[in-house]
Amino acid sequence: MIYLDNNATTAMDERVLDAMLPFMKTMYGNPSSVHRLGRIAKSAIETAREQVAALIDAQPTQIIFTSGGTEANNLLFQATPSYLPSNDSVKFAISAVEHSSISESAKQQHCAEVIPVNSDGLIEKETIFQLIEKKPNVVSIMLANNETGVIQPIAEIAAQLSEHGIIVHTDAVQAVGKIPVSFAQLGVQMLSLSSHKIYGAKGCGALCVDKSLSLKSLLFGGGQENNRRSGTENVAAIVGFGKAAELAKSELEARSSHILALRLQLEIELSKLPRVTIFARNSPRLPNTVLFGIDGIDGEWVLLTLDKKGICVSSGSACASGATEPSPILLAMGIPPEKAQTAIRVSLSHQNTVAEILEFIEIIKSFGV
């Protein structure tokens, strides 16, 4: 099998699994318990908090562990900063290319402004000026798109918005572990990330929150996560997240260099095929992501055909699997529906090889492109 769907999820690193196993077998104490096993579990969580914070240049006290990136993104809407007016008067704005965990949550809000992107998938400066005039309280713009890989100039955008007292959140789930991410340098007030996108366990993520903000509690009970998310912590998954973050930080340069070389090789080969279009090719993108389409061939058909040949890819976001509609991300970029319907996403890992890329290309060629 050739796995080329790493933006959907990554294979757990063996070192991450090794770190988790003791907390699933012998060190099973509840972190809220005062006995030895409980204290060991509590200490392990705090170590993981430090590791995750270090990966994104933040302070450990700014990290709130969640069940994943989706919950972290939902907290933006459901645990609105308490110093703002009541939820009824909070005005949100999101980009047109957000993950469904943001866009679907925004639909529940009566005052959610949508920020358009250009044909390259980027938000333009003039658009931000126009947004400021509409006076939103909270703005969410993802750092890197999960389908196209397009990287937004978040630091620049956040600087503009913060001057007007606007709170900025960024979904950095796809960016973390692939490019350098600094919470401090981005200048945002909230940032979401996820463990299973960086070779950690599923079911664990985090929201990084600036110390100036006070989030309303979403869950009530034992007061875990500094009273911001009650409930017994998933210790093993959090420990795995911490280990994955530690490895992502120490190996970032080597991983990024390898996957970028693979991506460039893939794009060179795809460019030789006359019916292939690489979407957002001229934009700054993640080193591992290529979204392309083959004129006249449905993306779902390509996906299923590749699957029969032992190759795993995606036709877009994994959270929209089974959808027959064209990608809303591409539609937001002005791509015609019939062309958007052809989209196939290849997302690479440092575990992939040049040989796998060349085998993938040969199969694509067999489609008569």
Oligomer: single chain
- Mean of residue pLDDT values: 94
Task: Give the total of beta strands.
Answer: 12
Helix fraction, binned, reads 25-40%
Number of domains: 2
CATH superfamily of the largest domain: Type I PLP-dependent aspartate aminotransferase-like (Major domain)
Strand content: 5-15%
Based on helices, strands and strand pairing, what is the structural class? alpha/beta
* Main sheet: strand order: 2-8-7-6-5-3-4
The largest β sheet comes out as: 7 strands, mixed
Order of helices and strands: EHHHEHEHEHEHEHEEHHHEEHEHHEH
| CATH-defined topology of the largest domain | Aspartate Aminotransferase, domain 2
Distance between the termini: 23 Å
Q: Please tell me the CATH architecture of the largest domain by its name.
A: 3-Layer(aba) Sandwich
Radius of gyration: 21 Å
CATH class of the largest domain: Alpha Beta
| Count, helices | 15
Which blocks of ≥5 consecutive residues have pLDDT under 50? Answer: none
Q: How does the overall form come out from the CA principal axes?
A: globular
How does this model look, in words?
This protein is α/β, with parallel strands linked by helices. It has two domains: 2-9 and 252-356, Aspartate Aminotransferase, domain 1 (Alpha-Beta Complex), CATH 3.90.1150; 14-250, Aspartate Aminotransferase, domain 2. 38% of the residues lie in helices and 13% in strands. The chain contains 15 helices and twelve strands. It has helices at residues 14-20, 22-25, 36-55, 69-78, 100-107, 125-133, 154-162, 183-186, 224-227, 235-250, 252-271, 299-308, 328-332, 337-340, 354-365; strands at 2-3, 63-66, 92-95, 112-115, 138-140, 167-171, 190-194, 205-209, 276-278, 289-294, 311-312, 343-347. A seven-stranded mixed sheet has the order 2-8-7-6-5-3-4, with helices on both faces. The chain has a three-stranded antiparallel sheet with strand order 9-10-12. A two-stranded parallel ribbon has the order 1-11. Strand 5, helix 7 (154-162) and strand 6 (167-171) form a beta-alpha-beta unit. Helix 1 (14-20) runs antiparallel to helix 10 (235-250). The longest helix is centred in the N-terminal third of the chain and has 20 residues, at 36-55. The model has no long low-confidence stretch (mean pLDDT 94).
